[in-house]
Structures are given as structure tokens and as C-alpha cells.
Amino acid sequence: MRVCPTNVIQPAGLEGGAEGVWTPTLNFRIGTSGCQLNCVACGHVCPTAAIRPITLDEKLGRNGFADAGPIRLGTAFVDHGRCLPWAMDRPCIVCQENCPVSPKAIFVRETFIPVRDGMHTVSHADELTIDLGAPVLAPQTFSTGDYYCRPLSDPDDSPRRIVANTDSMITLDSNRPFASPLRPGARVELLVRLQRPVVDPRYCIGCGVCEHECPVMGVKAIRITAENETRNPEHKLLL
Q1: Is there a single domain that holds both residue 175 and residue 207?
Q2: Cα 39 to Cα 26: distance, rounded to the nearest angstrom
Q3: With contact defined as beta carbons under 8 Å apart, do 74 and 206 qualify?
Q4: Total count of domains within the chain
Q5: First-to-last CA distance in the chain?
Q6: CB of 163 closer than 8 Å to CB of 130
Q7: Using one digit for the tens of pLDDT, what is the confidence trace for 166-197?
Q8: What is the pLDDT of residues 58-93, one digit of tens each?
Q9: How much is the pTM?
Q10: Does 119 lie in the same domain as 75?
């Protein structure tokens, strides 16, 4: 346990019965990260080989182990009821950004979703700014780069990215202005661009980095289970 550089190996309690007390188990919520991709230290210090010593090539499925593929600890599953982009229309790609394997086991599907109470009437506009004529927005709420504006008169027109907003005015990205200013009285819709994470089980090795880094407190929105782990064929996913 001490040799683990991220402290992800922790002593078990009673979950494995009396015989399992104090045996090593993986807790991806404790420590500084998940199981590091280029680390095999635990197997080489275990005095009884209860954690089997392996080489880095075997762990990563390289060279002579290419046919067998990498060693898998399990598989990550996204909880759509707790994941911010899936459940609450909040932008977040933390798990995808931190996935250490290549190709990444977590990819995203981009979608544009209307913002709640996001329909507004134009008071005045030019190619880059839209004045709504009344304080209907929270200042700078839509300036993160994840929010877009689309005229309802042409729903097939691609959304324009919002770069700043006051309580009554929206400023658009200067690289993609409207071809012509919107007319007073026109209706616009605010959209949020979401990148919803999806796990590809072909590449996931169950390292737990995504679970550790997930910003959702309490029960994490992405979690590792034993499905598809290398050591137990009975846990193979039925794909």
C-alpha cells in the first residue's frame, strides 16, 4: 500500500468478510489519482505475489503481449442520472480530458440543448450584438464559451457562440457574425453546447482516473466496476 504513488491501494474492511480484513483493495476516490498507467510497483513489492508481478509491457499490452491486450481492472460506467451534461445540461468534460489511455476510452457526443427560459425578443441588433431591451439575463452567465444564440426565424441556421453578456445584451463571436442584423421583434433562442461523455469498452482499462477526477461529490457520476476485468473471465461484458 505504501509503494502506490497515488495511494489508490487501501486496506479492505469487512466487505470481503473476516478473512479479507486489511487486504489490499482499490479505492479510486482516495489518494491523488487512479492507478497510474506506467506503474507496476505494487506487484514487485508484494512478498507473497498476491498482487502478481507484471512488466509494463504486459500491463499496457505492448510488444509480446500485444495480442492479449492491456490488463484491465474493470470498466467505467457513466451514471446518466448524476453526470452534469447528461442529467443537468451543465457543460463538463473532466472525465474525457483526464482519460490517460490512447485512443481515449471516453469520447464525447456533442449536442445543442435549449436553455431553460432562453427565448428572448430582440430590441435592437447589429452583426455582433443583440440588445434585448430589458434586464432578463444574469451578467456573464453565458460568456463561458459553451453558450450559443440562434434566431427562431431560421432554426436551420447554425448557432453563433456567445462571448459576453450583460443583463440585457449579448455579444457574439466576431469570427461568425450574422450575415445581416436581426430585426427588432425577432425571437432568439439561447442554447448550451454539451459534450456528453460515452465510454468505449474496447479501450477502457478501469484505471479509475476518471472516477477520481469527477467533480460530482457524493456518489460519483462515473464509476469503475469489475466488469471486463482481466483476472476473472466471468466478469466479461456481453458485447
Answers
A1: no
A2: 14
A3: yes
A4: 2
A5: 34
A6: no
A7: 999 999 999 988 888 899 999 999 999 999 99
A8: 999 999 999 999 999 999 999 999 999 999 999 999
A9: 0.88
A10: no
